[in-house]
Amino acid sequence: MIDKLASTPRLFVVSDFDGTLAEHSTDIYGVPVNQDSIAALSAFAKLPDTFAAALSGRHLEGLKRVFPLRAPVMLGGSHGAETEGEDSALTEDMKAFLDRVDDELNTIAADYEEAFVEQKPFHRGLHVKALSERDPQAAEEALARGLEVDPGDYFVSTGKNLVEFSATTANKGTWIETHRTTVDATAVVFLGDDVTDEDGFAVLNQPTDLGVKVGDGDTAAHLRVRDIDEVATFLQALLKARQEFLAN
Ligand SMILES: [Mg+2]
Fold first, then answer.
1. CATH 3.40.50.11030: does it fit domain 2-87+171-247?
2. Where are the domains of the chain?
3. What is the residue range of the signal peptide feature (predicted)?
4. How far away, in angstroms, is 10 Cα from ligand 1 center?
5. Residue 149 above 90 pLDDT?
């Protein structure tokens, strides 16, 4: 599997950040990052005909606070609604939607001590991870209330301890489709751990492409690894195979 990917003419390696390159943590700007994975992504991006990207649910500015690499490594934020170096704009209608949802979610969050609303350029999310650790039942109740907020013409999705409203149709799948064309990739590897990463796995043409699911849960990815240490092992093995292929 790795040798076949390594010998593709133009390889694009795309990875989710939280839960894939870094451990999940309640301290969202203090997450432990796996340096072996970071080193591998950096090395991919320096090879000829090889491209690397981090594609995160975090907004781009937030991703840049925790992900240390920059160009030529590509950065996608807000589940693919933002790309480093590209303009992205909100319409008046999108702004009004985000303001309304923000108000309604904050009303819910005010009823639970550890719940909070995250603001991203295209999203508003109700987070209950800290609440779920103290009172799982209250966390579920908060999420259920969040899901009752009307998305109108826009979108709502759920993640781990999260209900998120989106003013954009962009997702990890649309980002991968757009940017695999940009780099003219002949094979894409995408790694991710959360339900939102399934949008990314869904656009892959496996087995030429490869989805790598981190941890448990239903997935369309063809390969599963256990944790972020196994992500690093996979990336390093693919890097070594790619370097050997290019040297011949
Ligand atoms: Mg993740």
1. no
2. 2-87+171-247, 92-166
3. none
4. 25
5. yes
pLDDT digits (tens, 9 = 90+) for 174-232: 999 999 999 999 999 999 999 999 999 999 999 999 999 999 999 999 999 999 999 99
| Alpha-carbon span 102 to 176, nearest angstrom | 28
Q: What is the residue whose two structure tokens read 């840049």?
A: 64
CA 247 – ligand 1 centroid, Å? 33
Query: pTM above 0.70?
Result: yes
How much distance in Å is there from the Cα of 191 to the middle of ligand 1?
Answer: 9
Q: Are 195 and 162 in contact (CB under 8 A)?
A: no
Going from the Cα of 57 to the center of ligand 1, the distance in angstroms, rounded, reads: 7
**The dihedral sign for the CA sequence 219, 73, 77, 95:** negative
Share of the chain above pLDDT 90, in %: 90
Distance 197 CA to ligand 1 centre (A): 7
| CATH tag, 92-166 | 3.30.70
Q: Which two tokens mark 198?
A: 């399934």
CA of 199 to the centre of ligand 1 (A): 12
